[in-house]
Structures are given as structure tokens and as C-alpha cells.
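Weekly modeling sync, notes
Attendees: S.R. (lead), two postdocs, one rotation student

Agenda item 3: backlog of single-chain predictions. S.R. asked that every request posted to the team notebook include the full sequence so nobody has to chase files. The rotation student volunteered to paste the first one in as an example of the format we agreed on. Action items at the bottom.

Example entry:
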Amino acid sequence: MDKKTEEFYIRLREELSNTSAWPSEYLYKFIVPTSPKKIEEVENAFDNIGAVIHTKQSKNAKYTSISINVLMESPSHVVEKYIELSNIEGIISL
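Predicted structure, as returned to the notebook:
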């Protein structure tokens, strides 16, 4: 992870700590190239933790947006999921 990305996650963790009481609901939003494998990888990362997942393909079906609403224990857990999913090729975190 480069320094800029690391600084972003540190800042995100701090902002989440200051703006929410934890545990708290958190809404993740991702865009991935439309591929059943990539969509499944994202969904599997949230398997068995009570996540509500919605997917929607772009107009030309080239990309799929994935919204995940889930109860997270702490800001650190939120950041850990982002880092875990950053290994998926082509994923964009919003």
C-alpha cells in the first residue's frame, strides 16, 4: 500500500470514529467490471455477517455497482474490508 492510500485509510478511520457510535451500520459502495467472478468475490467478503447486498449493472452492462449495508463493529473493521477488497482487479471503492 502506498503512503497516500495509507494516509487516506488513517483519515477515514478517524472520521468514522468521530462521527458514529460503534457498532454501526455502514454502507459500502463498489463498482466492478461486470463479471460473475468479481461480483462473487465482493459478495463472499461479506458472507455470514448479515450484509444486505444490492447489485445493478450499468446501462451498457460493462460495469456493476454493488451496495452493501452491514453492521460493522468499529472503524478499523470498515477499513480492513476496504483493504481486503482492494486486491480485486478493477474494483473501485466509492
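Discussion: group reviewed the output briefly. Residues 3-93 form a domain with the Alpha-Beta Plaits fold (CATH 3.30.70.260).
Action items: rotation student to repeat for the remaining queue; S.R. to check formatting next week.
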